[in-house]
Amino acid sequence: MVDEIDRKIINILKLNSRLPYAEIGKKIFLSPSSVRERVKKLEDSGVIKAYTLSLNQSMLGNSLEVFIMLKIFSGKFKTALSEINSYPEVKEAFRITGQHNIHMRVALKDQLHLQQFIDKLINFGEPTTHLILSKVGKE
Q1: pLDDT at 11 over 80
Q2: Residue 78: which region, alpha, beta or left (left: phi > 0; alpha: psi -120 to 50)?
């Protein structure tokens, strides 16, 4: 079971997962060894699944980020899923309910790259594109 101290540790790690146990301990008044034990318990139990990178896409040459919702044509679902997972532009993809089947966050170089990416997707269904202007709120 995750208690209030574990939740504090999780919130700190969400902001900076590279923070030393001693620094985390100072923030929540625990010893570094107690923090380490709690983090290990959270990892072993599967609460913490992985540590990941948050990348600045514009510094990687991708000045355009979009959400694309895809309504997949009948009979194309399995093929679309395997193809979408192979596209390096796709940063996240979710199977969703509603009129659309797939919701993706995609990073692209420019509008031409977006056009070319949409041309790939129309083989599988009807894409709806939303340009991301900025991030609002928490991760």
Answers
A1: yes
A2: alpha
Cβ partners under 8 Å of residue 39, min gap 6: 9, 13, 21, 48
What is residue 49's predicted lDDT score, i.e. its pLDDT? 96
Long-range contacts of 85-88 (CB under 8 A, 24+ apart): 87/117, 87/120
User: Left (φ > 0), alpha (ψ -120 to 50) or beta: where does 90 sit?
Assistant: beta
- The pLDDT value recorded for residue 108 is 98
* Cα end-to-end distance, the chain, whole Å: 23
pLDDT at site 7: 96
Query: Is the Cβ–Cβ distance between 90 and 62 less than 8 Å?
Result: no
Helix residue ranges, H only, the chain: 4-15, 21-28, 32-44, 77-86, 111-121
Length of the chain, in residues: 139
Kindly report, residue by residue over 81-136, the tens digit of the pLDDT: 999 989 999 999 999 999 999 999 999 999 999 999 999 999 999 999 999 999 88
